[in-house]
Protein: histidine kinase
Amino acid sequence: MSDVWNSDLSFDVEGAIEGAFDVMPDPARDGIVLWSRNGRLQAYSGPVLGILGLPDGALSLGMKASDIHALQESCRDARFLNGFASELASGDLELAAPREDFRVVLDSGRVVRIDRRQRRDGGVATVVSEVPDFVPAGTAAREESDALRGIFEDCPIGVLVLCNDTNECLMANASLTRWFGSDFVEGIAGAKPCPVGDRTDDLASILIDPNFSMAMAEYEIEREALDGGTRWILLSGRPITFEGCDARIIWFRDISVRRRQAKDLQSKVAEKTRQLEEALHRADLASLAKTQFLANMSHELRTPLNSIIGFSDLLQKEMFGPIGSERYVEFVQHIHSAGAHLLELINDILDVSRIELGEMGLKEDLFDIARSVSATIAMIRPKLAEKGHHFSASLPDGPVGFVGDERQIRQILMNLLTNAVKFTDANGVIALSLTVDAAAGVVLEVSDNGIGIREGDLDRVLNPFEQATDETYSRSIEGAGLGLYLTQAIAKAHGGDLKIRSALSEGTTITVTLPAERLQPLA
Structure:
């Protein structure tokens, strides 16, 4: 004990402090001071001198608490030592009320824990110990404030707080002054206001207009920065109360990179648009050249074909006497049939060329559309009979006056019936109906139970040179795939439309609707 305590050998230290503390302090670690009832120092543990900030030999047994005041000059925490002694200086220990777990922040920054208890013999036992991990009240708030201040200063967005009454700068962060300088910030109050709705390059004039932040508006402005370059700044703000003052906070976001990227994107889009327009122009020229070529070639081919068809017709009729061998007659029939078929294809190609060149005109007259339909049926009957198709037609009982191009209306029906015959196996069923309604107009419908069209091909068959049926089957069928394209074009030229309903292996129904405005009574 003598190595730990400084006391008279006759003084029972352990007996003196027994029962004073719930947990006995450790004299080797804690500073323990025992005072007698009359205020005399009876004993103290070794760590006391270091904790109180006193040099070796500063304390002596029997000294009064008031004598400690004289030690202030040699103490590193004199103010604490003075207060520590003052509570015991009166010599009346009853005035030194017990302190349990009381912490004191010293000038040196240390934190000391004081635990003072009454002893059973009337004296006082005081324990003083350092608290290394103690956080004083207010430290967390100060640390949070410092952290927020650091965030404010390091924020990459410029921040400015202005007083509404004086336009005085209440706060500005480092980003703002780094961009535009402290002179700009200090000169804001002297600027002339400019309403945010007016275009101006004077940044300060915008900032001092209170309506800017009140309107919660955003404003983009280009301004020269201290580094010699220009910055595009996005301004935004809102009203706040700052340290009791009505104010407005304004944020400065550097959007220079975004503006450059937008400008680059606009340039790229403009260049791509130009390239696409050039490509489209070249494609249009190529398409026009193709169309003109087809039109010219069609005209050139029709002349010799008409001669071939005409002479083969004369040979078939043997107008100038018998040909001779029956085989020659058969050959002449093939020549005539092939020539007629080729002429139909050329006429279709010529019609396509007219459509693409915008030269498809209508020779409109008032005619009986029911009679035209009947005449077209009569023309197709040999083909119907050749394949053994069962054909039915439903027509109005009387004449139906219609204003349009009669030849093209007949071509619509001929194309629809020809397709039905071609794409329906032998002994199939084909039906035609013509209905007239004052509201719906003229509805011409042709249906069959042929091979049908896949759902995914319904739009494709309306393109020129398309036959969207079974590949093996379609290759055995004559035709260039122009019928439905021409039919739809003729219908639209008359203000009508064409609809297709079809299912593979079940058949097809094609409906052509012509406007009721074209119905007129026959004279």
